[in-house]
Amino acid sequence: MCDCCSSEKDIYLPELATITKAEMMNQTEMFMHLEFDSGKELGHQAGQFVEVSIAGIGEAPISVSSSPQQKGFEMVIRNVGRLTNAIHGLKAGDKLGIRGPYGSGYPVDELKGKDLVFICGGIGLVPQRSLINYVVSNKDEYGKIVILQGTKEYEQRIYTEDLKKWDDIDGVTVLETIDVAHDSWKGNVGVVTTLIPKIEVDLTAAMNLVCGPPIMYKFVLMALQEKKVSHDNIFVNLERRMKCGVGKCGHCQMNDQYVCQTGPVYRYSELASVPEAI
Amino acid sequence: MSIKKLSKDVFKSFVDALIASDQQVIGVKEKVQAKGNRFAFDNLQSADQLRLDYDITLLPPKKYMLPQDETLLTFKVAGESKSKIDNSKLILIGVHPYDMIAINQMDELFSQDQQDNHYMTRRKNITIIACDVATPSKNVFASSMGTATVESGFDILLTDIGDAYVAQAGTDKGEKLLAKASGAVNASDDDLAKRKAIQDKNKDALNKHKLNCKPSDLPGLLEKAYDHPVWEEKAKTCYSCGSCNTTCPTCYCFDVQDQVNWDLKTGQRERSWDGCLLENFANVAGDHNFRKPREARFRHRLYRKGKYVPTKIGGQIACVGCGRCINGCIPDIANPVAVYNRILEDIKPD
Amino acid sequence: MSKPRVAIFDFACCEGCQLQIVNLEEEILDLISVVDVVEWREAMSEQSEEYDIAIIEGSITRPEDEERIKDIRSKAKVLIAIGACATMGGLNKLKNNFQDLEEVKKCVYKDSASMPHLETSMTKAVDEVVPVDFKVHGCPIEKEDFARIIRSLLLGKTPEVPNYPVCVECKKKENVCRWEYGEICLGPIIRAGCGAKCPSASYRCFGCRGYVDNPNVDAAVDVMDKYGLTVDQLKSKMVLFGSKQGPTL
Fold this sequence. Notes:
The complex is a heterotrimer of chains A (278), B (350) and C (249).
Chain A: E1 15-24, E2 29-36, E3 49-54, E4 58-63, E5 73-78, H1 82-87, E6 95-102, E7 116-121, H2 125-137, E8 145-151, H3 160-167, E9 172-178, E10 188-189, E11 207-211, H4 214-226, E12 234-237, E13 253-254, E14 257-258, H5 259-262, E15 265-267
Parallel strand pairs in A: 7-8, 7-11, 8-9, 9-10, 11-12
Antiparallel strand pairs in A: 1-2, 1-6, 2-5, 3-4, 3-6, 12-15, 13-14
Chain B: E1 3-7, H1 8-20, E2 24-30, E3 39-43, E4 69-76, E5 81-83, E6 90-95, H2 97-111, H3 117-124, E7 126-131, H4 142-145, E8 156-160, E9 164-169, H5 172-179, E10 185-186, H6 189-205, H7 218-223, H8 230-235, H9 243-246, E11 254-260, E12 266-273, E13 283-284, E14 288-289, H10 294-308, H11 324-328, H12 336-346
Parallel strand pairs in B: 2-6, 6-7, 7-8
Antiparallel strand pairs in B: 1-9, 1-10, 2-3, 4-5, 4-12, 8-9, 11-12, 13-14
Chain C: E1 5-10, H1 16-22, H2 27-34, E2 36-40, E3 53-57, H3 63-75, E4 78-82, H4 83-88, H5 101-109, E5 134-136, H6 143-154, H7 166-172, H8 197-200, H9 218-226, H10 231-242
Parallel strand pairs in C: 1-2, 1-3, 3-4, 4-5
């Protein structure tokens, strides 16, 4: 930064973080752990995101998948665009530019004492994982925890070890399904809503936390509607083009909401006057 | 703050002296490409070029605070980045009241929450000499929006009273600058009366399209108009060319892209104007478009102006009635007044 | 890492796009500092059968051209089409408006029409014959656009190609709209990237970069009516680059 304004922060200037661990989770998803070169901690809340960049390639919003309580932070990156394609070519020791954390996270205190039902589609599990890790390690403060994970194809399943680990915890139930049957798959086949009748938690009393691709929300929300779940008890975690992360560039706006500021996590009842949301 | 009177000769010498100083001076000039009747903010080489009788500029003065394209950062590829802040000082002469109000709104938007120092540094380094409208443009509707005159934001406000300009200082910076106008005298009551007559006239006369409700009614009106047929009626001939965005003084959405130099080792992160009417504006990676229908994008702009942005700027309507979107729209569908009035045929504001 | 080998080939065209590369002038030194140009008929005498990147100018208008472009494609890792002729058929596609190419030949070449080297077939854009990895649009290409796309590719990044119309760049340049002069400017439906070069020089947009992904064709009738023009007049302006053209992405 130039001398005359070195005291003023540039909200678009990324800080470098080093990849301390990088591995492919399946053919399209890469897991990575990062630490800031400055030694600072990200200080995020579950559900928040960061702007990740490689100078020369570009910048994109990526959700943080690790619990706020651990050292460094983790992300899962699907290869879908220019930047993520380049990130997939990186390895431990390489650096990424990071800005953030941005957005509103999950209201972890408000969820206390409640049963929690996570309904995830594909990499919708990634932003939820941050909260899942937090609540399972503070299990005493929450009721029953149910995790429903739907994946399109068998090969695309992610966090399989985590899912198993969580399922082994007392009071935590994990149910998984895939959309397309596969020889190696003995579990449920069908979209994620087919798991809803199988759970033993009272959905109307539970907090239902939904995250997945755009098409999934419509069906999950219809299914929850049928179960008479109040919109106050549903949280969604939305994807938009959060280009600047700081409520300026306009790309992530849905109606009057800048998702990068008031989202990506919303209580569904807050979206009653936001028809562009779902 | 003082209010002076500058005869046209005194004013001319004042502007020439500013041009001779070390600051860059921008003013409204005739657009050379056009047939003598189109105007643009541009570098002034002489006070003779300044056309304060202009009707409207092709682009708003926004381009000096938020340039069409600018470098935000310079970087080493896959490495460290450095901020690039533009510190150049300039004087902007001839900003109309509606454009001044738009700048005031942008100042609020870029400074609130997390401050954008690229915009704010430029803004702080710009001295604005505004001027009341002398010639109404063919599509101005500032009177309908309450933006025909302006109270704040400028450093100096000029009003052409015939043989002279009345010049009111609006800030200390303006006061100091005005003190340099040798030959300026204190404005008399008669001068001020002439100025008031011009401003009062403009409050009614800058109204080629009359909004059939108060601007403050718009958020409530739009609350009930989301599914109104007007969006499809208008948008069916929308080219999605974004001209209404590009020429708007209150549109500030932008895109950011990285460019690399031939060494392939260094480059720049660049910001450029974007527009919510453009087809891919709400696309995410993987090509999902969250605002695909033309009518949804068309509606979004008019909701931003009338309902969404106002929540960020204390209820002010984010359309200042300059009429540039009307001038720039080939199918002639962009006129906000026509849209809001069409809704008013069916829905009454609260 | 060794520099990628680049070969530049021309098919049916005016070679104006290659000239635009030559017009990079001192930047050509930058270009050859990052790539090895192994074949480029317009600028050098060497030829090569071994290259990584093939840059193709011109459209495919003869049966033997199809064989030649297939051969190039088989040798190149990356194939870039440059200029309207290569990216969408360009001016050469004008002849596709006629059914009988023998008549076309006679009209153009008169008595020489039967000479064997004038054998012709319906014009094809390069991607109508072989897969094209990237396109640099325009007639001719913009040298800055070409340079940007090449640098992007050398960095391993898919270049950004705008899907917004020329009006965006034109308005940013503060041009007076050509429609205000009663001209049928194609700017609102044509892909940007040229920096609104023609309107900035007081000409209407001729449409050389092809349509945006989703041009609003329905608007045309209303707009023509509003300006006291006819759809036929619009169509006549679109013949040059707008008829029988392939998709532009």
